[in-house]
Amino acid sequence: MRIGYMTNGFGPLVGTGGGVTSVKDIGYLTLCDDEEVLKQIAAVGFKDIEVLEGNLTKYADDIQVLKDMLAKYGTNMMSVCVGANFIYQDALEDEMFHMERVAKLAEKVGVKYIGICGGAIRAKGVQEEDYSLLAKGLDLAKDIFENYGIKASYHPHLGSMAQSPEQIDKLFSLTSIDICPDLAHLAAGGGSPLKIVRKYYDRISYVHLKDLDKNGFAPLGTGTVDINGVIDFLKEKGYTGDYLVEVDGYAGDPKIACETSYKFLIDKLI
């Protein structure tokens, strides 16, 4: 079992600049000093990380720099989060170009999982046919990543086409991709994280552990999400997969959020 920590809580979230004019270059990016963040996370005790796609592709011209950085702190890149629209057919080819680019680089640093966030919402709102379009894109992306030995999953997310339990069910009835359940996003979307994890247990690739309080996302053990209930259920089922802790959008000190979450997990998983 591997337990990683997401670097995106250590800086502002932006989109890569080239994506403004070229869909093939679109992506998430955390504005931070990657090495300093890696150093802080490793010092807390986490030995695996997840990054946004832009914090991987920025090293495309010299991936060895990133590999050396990971080795320096005795860490591994367990997973990468990528963004997707997938409902605009004219753009789908370029989005898949981007998926392949991420896959090639991810393979070089030993990434095990890709978590895909998204499913664009049109100005006129989600259209029924958009679920089939998103499902088609997810299946295409899944095949691309599998060709590089990487397991792809869809991450239901606030602000996307699949945030409520009904939307999640609709999408997953149309695609064969795995799910990466994020406990706080599931709760904020109106669902019961435990019920959804139970329902989709056989399709879980890895799990995002995140808490939620009245102010938004929070360090583990400080909010209202039944994290213990989910972990206990997964243990009962003999779950042998991995976990990723994420505390993004948190107003407090990101290092303290990392430490708090690590201490919460010591007796449960670590």
List the helices and strands and how they pair.
Layout: E1 3-6, E2 13-15, E3 28-30, H1 34-44, E4 48-52, H2 54-57, H3 63-72, E5 76-84, H4 89-108, E6 113-118, H5 128-146, E7 151-154, H6 165-172, E8 178-179, H7 183-188, H8 193-199, E9 206-209, E10 211-213, E11 216-218, H9 227-236, E12 242-245, H10 254-266
Parallel strand pairs: 1-4, 1-12, 4-5, 5-6, 6-7, 7-8, 9-12
Antiparallel strand pairs: 2-3, 10-11
Helix pairs in contact: 4-5, 8-9
Structural write-up:
The chain has 270 residues and is α/β, with parallel strands linked by helices. The protein has one domain: Alpha-Beta Barrel (TIM Barrel). Helix content is 40%, strand content 19%. The protein has 10 helices and 12 strands. The strands form 3 sheets. Strands 8-7-6-5-4-1-12-9 form an 8-stranded parallel β-sheet. The chain has a two-stranded antiparallel ribbon with strand order 2-3. Strand 10 and strand 11 form a beta hairpin. Helix 4 packs parallel to helix 5. The chain is globular. The protein starts with a strand and ends with a helix.
